[in-house]
Request: fold
Amino acid sequence: MAGGRLQRELKKRRPFDSLEQEAALNITRTADRFGICFTRLFREHGLTPSQYNVLRILRGEGKPLPILEVADRMLTAVPGITGLIDRLEAMGLLDRERSTEDRRVVFVTITEPGLQLLARIDAPEAALHRRLLGHLTPDELRELTRLLEKARQSLDDCGG
Amino acid sequence: MAGGRLQRELKKRRPFDSLEQEAALNITRTADRFGICFTRLFREHGLTPSQYNVLRILRGEGKPLPILEVADRMLTAVPGITGLIDRLEAMGLLDRERSTEDRRVVFVTITEPGLQLLARIDAPEAALHRRLLGHLTPDELRELTRLLEKARQSLDDCGG
DNA sequence: ACCAATTAGTTTACGCGTCAATCAATCGGG
DNA sequence: CCCGATTGATTGACGCGTAAACTAATTGGT
Reply:
């Protein structure tokens, strides 16, 4: 249980109820803290983290993708994706196009300006990854990844 | 590098650029997924995760706390805390009271209904922690916590 | 062919996170 | 004592996440 670092950060009086609780709170806390850093980086380039994520998915795919497919890969609940795509389209970073085969479907594609913007972010983002986690050894990084992937196995049965 | 689980989850074509990137994305992904579960649990009791957090901090403290002290322990940017406290006060779960010594300061205290609500959430929350992370061994949980705490050390110098 | 169910996507409403600007109370230097 | 700087807190604007309700196109059973 141990009066760990998180307990101090939170100015908690009591130790944690369980190892599971301590680990879960550490996951949340770390993601929140790191998220702040990435949010600031993206903001310098005029993007929010969600917007960056959409563009990155589209670049990785390399071809038009249905809107809901994008939402799916982001964990974004369906309704939220619409405004997100709206703003990116208004910025000229992606194109929206209704499918001719199934007119319910809307495809989105990253534009050339979108690709150029991502290209400008690549290097500083890699540098940030290194600044945040470069002090862990390769073995530690692999073990951290392994443990987090194992942690997520508990989600498989119950809800996506 | 390894075609890991996350790569499949994201339907990524290429492996990750670095171990740091893979670990960072795994932290984010796991926190997001787990967060969805906790959000649902709290919602069943009429609370958002942030609202629950405020109440939990106040219960842990056991005495009135200045508003900004609450915001500080939550990573919440200062302006956001006001509306959060507003809604909890409207629900009768906490009391707001301006300090007499320094009239700029506003103290908040959890009310009896607030304590009762938290008490109803305690057991299901502990159960959720166990469902999400109970399949890791105690050694794995300790190692996961250690690695995440080490990860956050990189934030100490630069803004945290 | 027709009507019900499903699917893709949007709209609306509400709460939260972040930023910039503001206001009131307090503190400090002259 | 007074003026400027600081501190605690709030407000307003904007974007995102989530849920509920809705529209439009497609599918499937009969």
Summary: Chain A has a mean pLDDT of 91. Residues 62 and 107 of chain A are 12 Å apart (CA to CA). Chain A touches chain B through 60 residues (CB under 8 Å).
